[in-house]
Amino acid sequence: MQILLVGVSYRTAPIEMRERIDFSTRLKPALQALAARPASREAVVLSTCNRAELYVACESPERAKADLVAFMSAFHGVPAAELSPHLYDQLDADAVRHLFRVASGLDSLVVGEPQILGQVKEAFATAAEEQVAGPLLTRLFHSSFAVGKRVRSETGLAEGAVSVSYAAVSLARKIFGDLKGRRVLVIGAGEMGKLTALHLKSQGIREIVITSRTAAHASALVDQIDGAVGVPWEALPAALTEADIVVTATGSATPILDRAQVAGAMGPHRNRPLFIIDIALPRDVDPTTGSLEQVFLYNIDDLQAIVQENLSRRSGEVTSAETIVDEEVGRFAAWLRARSAVPTVVALRQRFEAIRRSELQRLEPKLAGLPPDARARVDEITRLLVEKLLIGPTEQLKALPDSETMTLYADAVSHLFDLDHDGAGAATPPDEAGDPADRHRARRYPGRSRAFPGADDE
Fold first, then answer.
1. Which one of 152, 211, 336, 363 has the minimum C-beta count within 10 Å?
2. What domains sit in the chain, N to C, each tagged with a CATH number?
3. DSSP letter, residue 288
4. What secondary structure letter does DSSP report for 446?
5. Residue 327 neighbours by CB distance under 10 Å
6. What is the dihedral of CA 25, 27, 28, 30, to 10 degrees?
7. Integer Cα distance of 235 and 241 in angstroms
């Protein structure tokens, strides 16, 4: 069984294409449809705004790849000729490395972004719930969670805000500490205001109020943010009085908040700070407002400076994070190799156990006179002897350094011990005469005196 990844991301496809193949709103139907296809034994779908990736366990990667492309094309109604130029695929160790880098934030548009690990966990949880993530992908994804956790705990890759909207949230937390229970006023209904509001919402904000000079725009943004409420533009002064955090992001050519308005909102009876995030250009807030007592005013340049500082700090952590990924890929690859040896190991142990039982059965007349505890001791001794003989070879087989060498050794073991991977490899019947090794050679290579073709010519 092999691991195959097929997907698109911000690196290979423009946003228009990523929108067309987004799985997020139909994730469960996609998993069910994917599980019904013959080429994939297990499946996980990872869908975010920056990527759509299919992870499958399969027997034939080439056949599975073609099937996954056909699936994505049919499921989204996108012609394969349009989709294929944007797709990438990875197999086994390369697919493992890719997922580990994704979970660590190394493959993100913003390196080290904190949200991606949670999205990877949600993708696997949904696949597990739909019962389409089997043992191989379960091990893979749980390993990716551990890698992401290691990178976050052992490096500074995820430290600091690296987007303007997230920098605003970080500043708000420095001022207020816990943001739960705070009120947010968003002035303007553009993309930056939306992103900042969404980041604040994730911090447990009590209420988000949205207003815009264009009522329809405010209403549309309210619909996109769970629990948000809209107020008319005329209600701005009252909403300002109630707010703890104000986000301004309009397209106005002149300030919409002056010093007097903000001073009025602070009032003589207000005993809490007001945090204003002015991310508009031109600025929405009179710069002198920041000198008012208990008013904390930041503009887009302030936030960009924080972002650049944190990006510089993160770039120095990338090498450390990549080293962790390399270590964990090596560890997972070793597990995969050991896993591929399991059928041979099982068959070898079954073969020896069958021979042990056959020999005990052959010696039954001689053992019949022994008391029960002595017979049990003979059984235990022979079992332990077989275990001791096999523990070294089986551990060495599992520890071989690459799949090609493991395949060669596994084939050699199968030939040497006449293993049948469907079961035990038949034990030597007790009534066959002659040396057991000779009987084995006679059965496997009739007419030859040695176990390997051409041995008679030596």
1. 363
2. 2-158 (3.30.460.30), 164-313 (3.40.50.720), 335-427 (no CATH)
3. G
4. T
5. 13
6. 120
7. 10
To the nearest 10 degrees (0 to 180), the angle between helices 135-154 and 318-362 is: 140
Q: Compute the CA torsion angle 408, 414, 420, 422 (nearest 10 deg).
A: -30
HEC assignment per residue over 303-354: HHHHHHHHHHHHHCCHHHHHHHHHHHHHHHHHHHHHHHHHHHHHHHHHHHHH
Reported as a single tens digit per residue, the pLDDT across 232-289 is 999 999 999 999 999 999 988 899 999 999 999 998 878 899 999 998 888 999 999 9
Cα angle for residues 252, 253, 254 (degrees, 5° grid): 90
Q: Which of 1, 35, 49, 215 is catalytic?
A: 49
Nearest to 167 by CA among 300, 318, 312: 300
Backbone angles phi, psi at 46, to 5 degrees: -105, 115
- Bond into 29 cis (ω within 30): no
Q: In angstroms, rounded to a whole number, what is the distance separating the alpha carbons of residues 388 and 87?
A: 50
Respond yes or no: is residue 49 known to be catalytic: yes
Average pLDDT, the chain: 84
Sequence-ordered alpha helix ranges (H) in 36-91: 61-76, 80-83
d(CA 376, CA 395): 28
What SS3 string covers 180-227? CCCEEEEECCCHHHHHHHHHHHCCCCCEEEEECCCHHHHHHHHHHCCC
Single pTM value for the model: 0.59
- Residue 223 sits at the vertex; the CA angle it makes with 217 and 228, to the nearest 5 degrees, is 100
> Distance of CA 102 to CAs 147, 203, 257, 340, 414, Å?
10, 24, 42, 26, 39
Residue 166 carries which side chain, given as an amino acid letter? Y
